[in-house]
Amino acid sequence: MSSVHLRNWSITLGGARIIKDLDLQVDEGEFLVLLGPSGCGKSTLLHSIAGLIDADSGAIDIGGRDMRFTDPSERGIGMVFQSYALYPTMTVRDNMSFGLRIAGTPKAEIAARVERAAEMLQLEALLGKKPAQLSGGQRQRVAIGRALVREASVFLFDEPLSNLDAKLRAELRRELKLLHQRLRSTMIYVTHDQVEAMTLATRIVVMRGGEVQQIGSPAEVYQRPANRFVAGFLGSPAMNFIDGEVDIHNCFRAGAMSLALAPDAPVGCAVLGVRPEHVSIDAFGALAGTVALVEPMGNHQVVWIDCAGHMLSSIAPELQHFAPGQAVRFAIDGARVSLFDPDGGKRL
């Protein structure tokens, strides 16, 4: 395994600046997830680490070696793309071993590596089949196996599960996490799916417009978002936002709504953010509203509450019954809210 270090990394494509003076340190054995909306530059960044896209400026070290002008084949990288990119006329065994054969690896070594990867990915029974005979999940396992046999120091994943249905995504997500726990290799993973990011990552890098918005553990990024963009991007349903003001008595006010906050709350205009799980419907709650919409989710339900013109989502147990138009009382955990600057969106 190797660390990856980017310094002042900038990339321009078609006259547009995609990555802007980015600094990033990926530690040995880490599972780092690059998360962000389409077009934020995360895939471009990943491809530049692999050497498939040239940077305009900056430095990149992999395993302590300067790789700025090193060919992709010499960077010690194993890459898995969104499309499986398998050779249709080759068997699974030949697809997995192709790169090794081109590199002149001894046959015995190739066979041992393929067998080892096939065992880890449960592909032993499929080694003689061709891609057309495989399911989408099996094809993606082969693509992952092709990267594993290289025994690379860093593995790069470019949205490898996005073409799969929800059930297969969940299965392969678990397998990837177990694979990382087993190999302890350095892995950098690109996705726009927050569930993948939260479940796989040791650290998440949230990106927007080619810039890093926040880096932290899944818990840190979710519980203490650095700005309103991060807060709104993570979470399903998304964080509730209310424009208002904090007075000198540490009370947040938004029209007829008021909420007691922690003693250190900054005074002045602010946007209050609260996760749906911290909005609890309670007969003794201090706030009142009307149910606008109920979304059953199986083991829970999302209840949308209209409170003085503010629409808030709340997570409620599936056994409770709510109906549109029903009057309810609810509480917001003032110790679990976030406050953001109404202009720049930065966390206060």
Q: Structural class given helices, strands, pairing?
A: alpha+beta
Number of helices: 8
Strand content: 25-35%
Radius of gyration: 24 Å
Number of domains: 2
> Which spans have pLDDT < 50 for at least 5 consecutive residues?
none
Can you summarize the main beta sheet? 6 strands, mixed
Oligomer status:
single chain
Q: CATH superfamily membership of the largest domain, which one?
A: P-loop containing nucleotide triphosphate hydrolases
Shape: elongated
| Rounded average pLDDT | 93
**Helix proportion range:** 10-25%
* Arrangement of strands in the largest sheet: 6-7-8-3-9-10
Overall strand count: 20
**The CATH topology of the largest domain, please?**
Rossmann fold
Sequence of secondary-structure elements: EEEHEEEHHHEHEHEEHHEEEEEEEEEE
Ends apart, CA distance between termini: 38 Å
CATH class of the largest domain: Alpha Beta
Give the second-level CATH assignment, the architecture of the largest domain: 3-Layer(aba) Sandwich
Protein name: ABC transporter ATP-binding protein
Keywords: ATP-binding, Cell membrane, Membrane, Nucleotide-binding, Transport
Organism: Massilia agrisoli
Pfam family, one: ABC_tran
Can you put this structure into words, describing what you see?
This protein has 348 residues and is an alpha+beta fold. It folds into two domains: 4-225, P-loop containing nucleotide triphosphate hydrolases (Rossmann fold, 3-Layer(aba) Sandwich), CATH 3.40.50.300; 240-340, OB fold (Dihydrolipoamide Acetyltransferase, E2P), CATH 2.40.50. The chain contains eight helices and 20 strands. It has helices spanning 42-50, 92-102, 107-120, 136-148, 166-183, 194-200, 218-223, 228-233, and strands spanning 4-13, 16-26, 31-35, 57-62, 65-66, 77-80, 154-158, 186-191, 203-208, 211-216, 240-246, 251-254, 257-260, 268-274, 279-281, 287-296, 300-307, 310-317, 327-332, 338-340. The strands form four sheets. It has a six-stranded mixed beta sheet, with helices on both faces. Strands 13-12-11-14-20 form a five-stranded antiparallel beta sheet. Helix 5 (166-183) links the parallel strand 7 and strand 8 (186-191). Keywords: ATP-binding, Cell membrane, Membrane, Nucleotide-binding, Transport. It comes from Massilia agrisoli.
